[in-house]
Amino acid sequence: EAGVTQFPSHSVIEKGQTVTLRCDPISGHDNLYWYRRVMGKEIKFLLHFVKESKQDESGMPNNRFLAERTGGTYSTLKVQPAELEDSGVYFCASSQDPGGRSPLHFGNGTRLTVT
Amino acid sequence: AQSVTQPDIHITVSEGASLELRCNYSYGATPYLFWYVQSPGQGLQLLLKYFSGDTLVQGIKGFEAEFKRSQSSFNLRKPSVHWSDAAEYFCAVSRSQGNLIFGKGTKLSVKP
């Protein structure tokens, strides 16, 4: 079974540019999550999709972040325009069961550097 | 507010020595508890989980953790550390929707 795949693995962009991160969850997993870790801080929840619907987007920092999951398969997270404080590692995770008992399967993350 | 505290940012142990990583949580009810590990360049891998029942849970790679309700703790232990255990370890609690609240992580270094 293929795991959660994220790309790119690294992205370096200038302040004001746009970046799009992609996540391919494990096949059959309806639940897809985005998390972010800013350097030195906790890994923080951004949002949760159930299929193509946003179940919870309470962690999205501001309207410069746009997440989509068209067709309920892969997801993209776009940052436009990027700011310096957006630098960090963005993780995607998926699970079969939306309940709290279901472990999340994480991708390797995308390291975003905004200069 | 719900939170997870990992008081140790960085721990160094000798290979073969025992290990205990601390985790305390603040939550309204008994949460679902997890330990994840992140090796360099890798994603987060689940080590073990606690939902209910026996408070001592076994995980992969020889790790175990003990849930202590009275102390709001879920400490991770391993009797004998291997060099390959060098990584960053995250304690997490789960809300009902499955979203995780993480601690800041503890980086483990292993001396030969």
User: Mean pLDDT across all residues of chain B, rounded?
Assistant: 93
Query: Which regions of chain A contain 5 or more consecutive residues with pLDDT less than 50?
Result: none
Largest sheet of chain A: 7 strands, mixed
Order of helices and strands of chain A: EEEEEEEEEEE
Tally of extended strands of chain B?
A: 12
With helices defined by DSSP (H or I, 4 residues minimum), what is the helix count of chain B?
0
Nearest-angstrom radius of gyration of chain A?
Answer: 13 Å
Tell me the strand percentage band of chain B.
over 45%
Distance between the termini of chain A: 37 Å
How much β-strand is present in the residues of chain A?
over 45%
Q: What is the makeup of the main sheet of chain B?
A: 6 strands, mixed
Calculate Rg of chain B over CA atoms: 13 Å
Q: Averaging pLDDT over every residue of chain A, what do you get?
A: 93
Structural class of chain A: mainly beta
Beginning-to-end CA distance, first to last residue of chain B? 41 Å
Regions with little confidence, pLDDT below 50 for 5+ residues of chain B: none
Shape of chain A: globular
Oligomer status: heterodimer
The two chains with the largest interface, and their residue counts, are: A-B, 31 and 26 residues
What can you see in these coordinates?
The complex is a heterodimer of chains A (115) and B (112). Chain A is an all-beta fold and 115 residues long. Chain A has no helices and eleven strands. The relative contact order of chain A is 0.33. The mean pLDDT of chain A is 93. Chain B is mainly beta and 112 residues long. Chain B is 0% helix and 53% strand. In chain B, the strands form three sheets. In chain B, strands 2, 5, 6, 10, 11 and 12 form a six-stranded mixed β-sheet that branches. Classes of the chains: A mainly beta (115), B mainly beta (112). Chain A binds chain B through residues 3-4, 31, 33, 35, 40-45, 48, 55-56, 59, 91, 93, 95, 97-109, and chain B through 4, 31-32, 34, 36, 41-46, 49, 51, 90, 94-105.
